[in-house]
Design brief:
91 residues; three-stranded antiparallel β-sheet; globular; four-stranded antiparallel β-sheet
Length: 91
């Protein structure tokens, strides 16, 4: 039918100003979110929209300010913030 249909929506998850990253290998979409006035990295299942994990990054200095999220070859999340570059290492 050549039409777009919404697969899922998450109005309870905040992603105010980042460009998401979709990882085809893991099936996750990563966003910079906010919880309790602190910035977070959120990972959602690309197919279902269910939470996979979230990680609290910190206060307003970690605001991505519209930057895109990137993942390097070691699986580290990188993005630009107002005080410089942020790199989150996988555990």
């Amino acid at each position: 039918t050549r039409e777009l249909v919404s697969a899922w929506a998450r109005p309870d998850v905040s992603s105010p100003n980042s460009v998401p990253l979709v990882s085809r290998n893991s099936g996750l979409v990563y966003i910079l979110g906010a919880r309790d006035n602190r910035w977070t990295l959120e990972a959602l299942d690309w197919t279902t929209g269910e939470d996979r994990f979230h990680y609290v990054i910190g206060d307003q200095r970690y605001n991505g300010m519209g930057s895109g999220i990137q993942m390097d070859e070691a699986g580290r999340i990188n993005y630009g913030a107002q005080w410089g570059r942020v790199r989150l290492n996988p555990e």
